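Notebook entry, cofactor series.
This is the third protein in the set we're modelling with a bound small molecule. For this one the ligand is zinc ion. I'm keeping the input format identical across the series so the outputs can be compared line by line later. Sequence and SMILES below, as received.
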Amino acid sequence: MVQVIKCLFGQHRINRRRVWNDSVSMRGACRGCSKPLIRDLNGWRPFDPSDHSDKRLPHPNVDLAPRTTA
Ligand SMILES: [Zn+2]
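Returned structure with ligand:
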């Protein structure tokens, strides 16, 4: 519950059990709000539509993948 409040301030926290690799970056979801996250050089941040690339592979199990349209 505390995490959800942090989410409102943009301090998302990765759910390490759901991390996967799309062949370009590590991807995951927030533990508090399930928002899709992506890891770049500075750490985890929310996935942005502009991050989309044809090089990125879909989640190996699409049914479990977090929705990219939040
Ligand atoms: Zn969050």
